[in-house]
Amino acid sequence: MDKWITPFRLYREAGAGFLHRTRYNSLMQVLLAGGHKFLLLELDPDFVASIAKQAGFEYRIEESQRSMNLHLSAVDRQAPLLLFDAADPGNLGWFSRCQFYVDGKSGAVLQTPMSLANQKDRSGRTLPDSVRLQISKELPVSFRMPGKQPVTEQMVYAVLYNLLNALLNTGVGVCGGPIVKPLAGRTESIGTRN
Predict the structure, then answer these.
(1) φ, ψ for residue 48 (rounded to 5)?
(2) Are the CB atoms for 55 and 159 separated by under 8 Å?
(3) What is the pLDDT of residue 7?
(4) What is the dihedral of CA 52, 58, 63, 66, to 10 degrees?
(5) Residue 58, Cα to own-chain centre: how many angstroms?
(6) Which of 166, 169, 168, 162 is nearest to 146 (CA)?
(7) Whole-number mean pLDDT of the chain?
(8) What value does the mean pLDDT take over residues 56-74?
(9) CA 194/CA 192 separation, integer angstroms
(10) Are residues 63 and 45 in contact, defined by beta-carbon separation less than 8 angstroms?
(11) What phi and psi values does residue 108 have, to the nearest 5 degrees?
């Protein structure tokens, strides 16, 4: 397919002006909003579901215009998911092996278009075998994946698969913050620190 431009939507919100989509070399869509450009990911829910299933999770997918939300559970797992406190010295073994880190204040999985959150039961306790994952479909054009690679749907699928495997096998570090709670390793400090 050649380059094409079609009108997407006209609205005025904070001086955004005209919005339209542009497809370059049929690989990625770009949303132009005034002077801002965003990459639009076209994620396939069936393919994401097969990744979750292959990794060993039960899943529920909810899709919106700007994101894809996954509710993931590893119900047959005897131990909690390997989401650990990266700052605790007792978790040094996990820290040295992990590839992914979650900002504990925002839930952002660093250098990915994903955010992670704990799931809770009806009484408000954190479930040790379940998480929620949000994949953003709109990213700034300057966004880069690890290794400064440009974003494509295939790259997002690969990172998703690796993140889900890390939650089950190698560990994902939580870096500070009260929002995302660690599920494995030493999750609470004992006594006072010097």
Answers:
(1) -60, -40
(2) no
(3) 28
(4) -50
(5) 17
(6) 162
(7) 80
(8) 95
(9) 7
(10) yes
(11) -65, 130
| Nearest-5° Cα angle at 151, 169 to 28 | 135
101 neighbors 109 (Cβ within 8 angstroms): yes
Place of tokens 């997407």: 8
Do 113 and 98 contact (CB within 8 A), yes or no?
no
Nearest to 41 by CA among 163, 167, 143: 143
The answer on pLDDT for 47 being more than 90 is: yes
Per DSSP, the three-state class of 56 is coil
Q: Residue 189 above 60 pLDDT?
A: no
Could you give the 3-state DSSP secondary structure of residue 166?
helix
* Structure-token pair, residue 141: 């054009």
Q: Measuring CA to CA, which residue among 2, 37, 44 is closest to residue 17?
A: 37
Instruction: State how far the alpha carbon of 172 is from the alpha carbons of 15, 25, 176, in Å.
Output: 40, 35, 13
CA 82 to CA 67: how far, in whole Å?
A: 25
Q: pLDDT digit string (tens) for 113-139?
A: 999 999 999 999 999 999 999 999 999
